[in-house]
């Protein structure tokens, strides 16, 4: 991972245009190629970012006293980061991450749904639980009655970050042309209204399940109303 602390300005061009004026920020370049720009606040969410796969070109203008990164993805979206002053630039080898250790409720919910994927949607069959990708494992990968691959993200509380996580996983799966069409399902005990809207805008299905009911039923009895 490369971490750069710099005074920078950022311009995004793609589906829309966005500009971050000059300020001190953290620029994070992950091993998978993801580029994210963070402020000193706002918890985990970056101000702007470009998911992998992408191409990063560094341009140096010594006479102007500034450097520029141009990040481009296959969709022709562009993130231009102008570095006015660099305070720190370091590389770190983090190694393989074991992944998020989920709490008992969320982990057990995932187990129950893996045992009976029809509780999510009639006709679903499990391909694999904790399906590996370069950015972490997908909770469940299934196939539906039409033999389409279905990526399922399971949360105890369904919020926007979970939908974003599912989006990133599907982007990785689509790099494997052998899988064919892929769609997503976001599953939680409670899905927040904003997450429902975002999921639907991304073409995903969302499903709310009752953990206590699922826990009290036998695997072959699991069904949604």
**Rg for CA atoms:** 20 Å
Question: How many domains?
Answer: 2
Low-confidence stretches: 218-225
Count of helix runs = 4
Question: Care to describe what's here?
Answer:
The protein has 225 residues and is α+β, with helices and mostly antiparallel strands. The chain folds into 2 domains: 2-91, Protein Yojf, Chain: A (Distorted Sandwich); 104-221, Trna Endonuclease, Chain: A, domain 1, CATH 3.40.1350.10. The chain contains 4 helices and 12 strands. It has helices at residues 104-115, 160-173, 193-201, 211-215, and strands at residues 2-13, 17-29, 35-38, 48-50, 55-61, 66-72, 78-91, 125-131, 138-143, 149-158, 182-191, 205-208. A 7-stranded antiparallel beta sheet has the order 4-3-2-1-7-6-5, with no helix packed on it. Strands 8-9-10-11-12 form a 5-stranded mixed beta sheet, sandwiched between helices. A hairpin with a 5-residue loop joins strand 6 and strand 7. Helix 2 (160-173) runs parallel beside helix 3 (193-201). The relative contact order is 0.12. Mean pLDDT is 88; it is low at 218-225.
Short characterization:
This protein has 225 residues and is an alpha+beta fold. It has two domains: 2-91, Distorted Sandwich (Protein Yojf, Chain: A); 104-221, Trna Endonuclease, Chain: A, domain 1, CATH 3.40.1350.
Question: Would you spell out the secondary-structure blueprint of this structure?
Answer:
Blueprint lengths: L1 E12 L3 E13 L5 E4 L9 E3 L4 E7 L4 E7 L5 E14 L12 H12 L9 E7 L6 E6 L5 E10 L1 H14 L8 E10 L1 H9 L3 E4 L2 H5 L10
Parallel strand pairs: 10-11, 11-12
Antiparallel strand pairs: 1-2, 1-7, 2-3, 3-4, 5-6, 6-7, 8-9, 9-10
């Amino acid at each position: 991972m490369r971490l750069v602390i710099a005074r920078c300005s950022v311009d995004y061009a793609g589906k829309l245009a966005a500009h971050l004026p000059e300020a001190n920020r953290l620029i994070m370049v992950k091993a998978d190629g993801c580029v994210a720009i963070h402020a000193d606040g706002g918890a985990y969410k970056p101000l702007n970012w470009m998911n992998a796969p992408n191409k990063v070109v560094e341009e140096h203008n010594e006479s102007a006293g500034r450097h520029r990164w141009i990040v481009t993805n296959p969709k022709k979206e562009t993130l231009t980061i102008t570095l006015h002053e660099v305070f720190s630039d370091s590389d770190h080898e983090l190694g393989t991450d074991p992944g998020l250790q989920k709490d008992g409720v969320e982990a057990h919910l995932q187990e129950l749904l893996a045992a009976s994927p029809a509780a999510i949607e009639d006709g679903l069959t499990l391909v694999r639980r904790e399906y590996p990708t370069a950015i972490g494992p997908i909770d469940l990968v299934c196939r539906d009655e039409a033999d389409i691959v279905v990526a399922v993200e399971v949360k105890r509380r369904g919020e926007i970050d979970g939908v974003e996580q599912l989006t990133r996983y599907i982007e990785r799966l689509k790099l494997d042309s052998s899988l064919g069409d892929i769609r997503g399902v976001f599953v939680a005990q409670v899905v927040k209204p904003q997450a429902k809207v975002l999921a639907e805008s991304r073409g995903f299905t969302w499903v709310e399940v009752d953990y206590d009911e699922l826990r009290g039923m036998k695997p072959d009895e699991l069904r949604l109303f």
